[in-house]
Amino acid sequence: MAFVSGEIVDRFRKQFQSAATPLVYRAPGRVNLIGEHTDYNLGYVFPIALEMACYIAIAPAAHGKLRVYSRDFDKEASIAVTDIASAKPTKQWSDYVFGVAQELVKAGFAIEPCDMFVASEVPTGSGLSSSAALEIASAVALLGGRAFPKVELAKLGQRAESQFVGMPCGIMDQYAAVFGHAGAALKIDCRSLGHEYVELPSNVRIIAVNSLVKHELGTSAYRERVAECQQAVAALKELDPKIESLRDVALDFFERVQDSVPMVPRRRARHIISDTQRVVDLATAARKNDLAEMGRLFVASHRSMQYDYQISCEEIDFLVDSAIKIPGVYGSRMTGGGFGGCTVNLVAPEAVDTFRQQLSALYNARYQKTPAFYDCLPAEGAGLA
Ligand code: GLA
Q: Which of 82, 142, 165, 356 stands the most exposed, by the fewest C-beta atoms within 10 Å?
């Protein structure tokens, strides 16, 4: 449910004891349909931007600071605008905002003193990219209408996260938050940084299911996977010096030569190369309205994450295995960085109610937790709310 602009303006005024009329910006979360961890390997990804978004109300202030309040953490943080360039991370939510501010300063954009009220609907730690939503909402709010190329905006958000926050992420989340489009999924080529919009079949609903398991392991395991993919590239480069990333490796070539790659990097590479191919195949299946094939690709992608990339967890596997037994479910897979968060499911519209009831009951009986369900409709990228 969109955070009503009037409501955020009132909250802004109360919080900062201000009579200013702030501008309200939004940037969406995303759910990735297929192509997981392929972005930093320069392959394809296939997310949709969500209606669930991060909202920021912003207005100039006279206190010399960038002052920001988070409704969700009920915390305020501030920094003198003259200190932004030399700011260091503090391992708190405000790093996302100050990291973006620092990148803007580096890109030559002065940050004027201001107050920012942040309210996000994107659940944290759920694999729906609450961090990129916060970064990109911060960037558009701080830019305040100043022109900035869209691809550069996505790259700036990614730099803030990898360099300031310290999570060596790919470009997918920030890109989806910038380029999201109502009514279509985004097939992003993470090497050229171009994209095409792909309309999804109208006779299917995309439902994300939150396991409520937070991906605590996230950053360290993510870093490990990045390194293992680089080891695979190094081994494959011995066979073909033209190989610079796993994107350059065709699946049939890999299948022929995989024994020359050490075991762990080999499994990681097998996931990346096959999931990049599955993005292409899913886009084709979506264009043909082939829901059975889309579902098959979802499950194949999940198994590849489960066994080869090893980024799933018990609760998520339980959600996937239970979902695909429910009539009317075409496919199910984990979405996002891994180790918890959400699954994404392709469900026939008439089966959605049963799907929710049955999956909820099964998960509850097993883990004594009620999963949250989100109906995912492709929405627009960042801008004024
Ligand atoms: C996180 C990262 C993305 C991407 C996904 C996995 O969301 O931020 O760049 O690598 O994990 O697909």
A: 82
